[in-house]
Amino acid sequence: MKNPDWTSKGKTVADLAKELLSFEDQEMEVRISLDGGDTSLPVSLVGKSNRKYAVLINCQDIPTPIRHRDET
């Protein structure tokens, strides 16, 4: 099954900021998931890559993932 186009299009900084500003709780921690939301890691830094991409970076020596699917 082919993924829908929106899954690989990505978001602009403006799109992401607008979405984050729509959250009622602006003190909520932002995390990044690479497995469809099963687990996530804290975002330590926001950086630039080759002036083309904004990159969310986890800088932990030993990552501390949260397993969301185990939460009830």
How are the strands ordered across the major sheet?
1-2-5
> Tally of extended strands?
5
Number of helices: 2
Low-confidence stretches: none
Average per-residue pLDDT, rounded, comes to 91
> From the alpha-carbon coordinates, what is the Rg to the nearest angstrom?
14 Å
- How far apart are the termini? 30 Å
Major sheet attributes: 3 strands, antiparallel
Fraction in beta strands: 25-35%
Structural class: alpha+beta
SSE string: HHEEEEE
Topology (elements, then pairings):
Layout: H1 6-9, H2 13-21, E1 31-32, E2 39-42, E3 45-49, E4 53-57, E5 66-67
Antiparallel strand pairs: 1-2, 2-5, 3-4
Task: Kindly describe this structure.
The chain has 72 residues and is of the alpha+beta class. It has a domain at 30-65. The chain has two helices and five strands. It has helices at 6-9, 13-21; strands at residues 31-32, 39-42, 45-49, 53-57, 66-67. The model has no long low-confidence stretch (mean pLDDT 91).
Brief digest:
The chain is an alpha+beta fold and 72 residues long. The chain contains 2 helices and 5 strands.
